Amino acid sequence: MAVIRFTDATQDDVEAVTDCIAAAYAKALKSIADLPDVTGGLAKDIADHRVVLAHSDDGLAGVIIFAQQGAVMKVVNLAVSPSAQGQGVAGKLLSYAEAEACEVGCTHMELRTHRLMQDTRAIYAHLGWIEAEVAGNSVAMRKNL
Q1: CA atoms of 102 and 71, how far apart (whole Å)
Q2: pLDDT digits over 8-22, tens only?
Q3: pLDDT bracket for residue 1 (50, 70, 90)
Q4: Contact 2, 56 (CB under 8 A)
């Protein structure tokens, strides 16, 4: 695994973040008809939330968008460039958000994913997340800190 460097996203990164997220979700978007818009509102996300970029020598490897809500750190979106998938980037981005959550006193982290995204659910489970609720096609996951 190449060295990963983290930076905070700025408005100048909207296009690169959009491209990374679109590429990461491209396969799922072809097969999951009710997947929500994963790239809409990114400029607002960068303004309102923590958006952290993972860079490798090959460019933008991934992005995580997260926000504190009381004692909870919510992961709004996580995407890894197809060229960087399988190299531990998702785990590193989640660890980054988890460290920040601990620093600000959060008790746990939460996220939602789609029921049909089995590989994604498996990655989260491997990283210590548990499925807290399945309602329709939405799966709520949680990780205690």
Answers
A1: 10
A2: 999 999 999 999 999
A3: low
A4: yes
